[in-house]
Amino acid sequence: MFNHYSQCDLSLPHRRKFLQQMGLGFGSLAFATMLNEKARADIPINPANPLELRKPMFPARAKRVIWLFMTGAPSQVDTFDYKPQLQLRHGQALPGSDAKTGFFTTSGKILKSPFGWKQYGQSGSWVSDIFPHLSKHVDDMCFMHSMHLKANNHAPASIELMCGSNIPGRPATGAWVTYGLGAENQNLPAYVVMHDRKPRGDDQIWSAGFLPKTFQAMALDAKRKETIDNLVRVKGETDEEQRASLDILHDLNEEHAKERGTQADLLARVNSYELAYRMQMAAPEALDYAKESEETKKLYGIDSKECGTFARQCLIGRRMLERGVRFIQIFAGRGASGDGSVDDVPWDGHNNIETNHRSCGLATDQPAAALLQDLKARGLLKDTLLIWGGEFGRTSDSQESLGRDHNPNGFTIWMAGAGVKGGFHYGATDEFGYKAVENKVHVNDLHATILHMLGLDHEKLTYRYNGRDYRLTDLGGSVLKDILV
Description:
The protein has about 475 residues and is an alpha/beta fold. It has one domain: Alkaline Phosphatase, subunit A (3-Layer(aba) Sandwich), CATH 3.40.720. The protein contains 10 helices and 17 strands. The strands form 5 sheets. Strands 1, 4, 5, 6, 7, 8, 11, 12 and 15 form a 9-stranded mixed beta sheet that branches. Strands 2-3 form a two-stranded antiparallel ribbon. Strand 13 and strand 14 form a beta hairpin. The N terminus is likely disordered.
């Protein structure tokens, strides 16, 4: 019988050689895919300066963002979401879940708000008495009362609120914004985080995730007075000597990186040395609030025992905004628990909501109000977006008789400046403040709106990673046009 392969034996590769060639082929395909993924990032990045200033996709109302993150989750029904039914039905069982109400089944009893409430401003906005300073500025605030998300614990909820998903490893909002717009001031980082104690979730909350590490936040610790490591020049070294050393280091790192084209973080490391060099003069000046007037320092409460730390951070935040830092987050610290100790998570009022929230109010109210007032007085509020809120809300029923448990089903975040409607209330929770029921706002909607205000289309701000185009808003999100002027 005729053997077809007998005519081709000389051209057929040996089995071992065949497998080797196939393996190399798959390797080439993988390498090509990685290069293609890098090339398909929607934002054109200059390798020599990834943080160079980039134009927004369309005219923007906001140039910069400062987010006051109330770590631990303030209770919406004890701050800005007044619910008379809690006062009237204190001690009664919270209605259970049924087809008519949609409430969740709970075993607790309704807990009234222990705070006094009044209406303020021309908008008649309700505010509890833990905010005597912020209550004066309600006509500048846009309240979103129908926020909701999935996670029910601090770390995943904080990650979800900042990154659009509670899956660790995703880029935070500030990293996306920096990736999309670059830095306005090349001598300062574009994305800065300040914290008193690290919130649960740690660096994941402000991580660059799979984006190049150039877009990672610079974190400043209040315990170290917001100092920056390794920024001061070696004693006795001149500027010319340091510049020469950096040039040699740059050339060596560049040669090293050329042979490792798929390791994007090598380029970020090279750029970090250059940014640190440029920051040597700019950063100390930006952090030095001592030159501020005594009137300004008194406005913020710098010398206050209760709020001095947050006051210092808010004032430094304003100074950084003035100097071109694009995205700042301040994670609030301090807060007393019901047993007299200091809570690990400040606004986490499980034991006694009155003791906890009064303490946290004292620690944050005056500086936050001063920041809003100061931005407005300096003409910065018109193109600065100020955000206030925690990672979720708290229950309407009691925990341990005087406290409230975690509640991601309905909570309040407010924004001010940059074209949001002042004195405006969007969305609503049910009559007990337990669940968002009207114009519900998911974190994807919040992020879509923030990006829109910065001139970025949340559906077009993408980055290809592992064969997929990712975005901050994942597969959802709608711009809340009703809250914009």
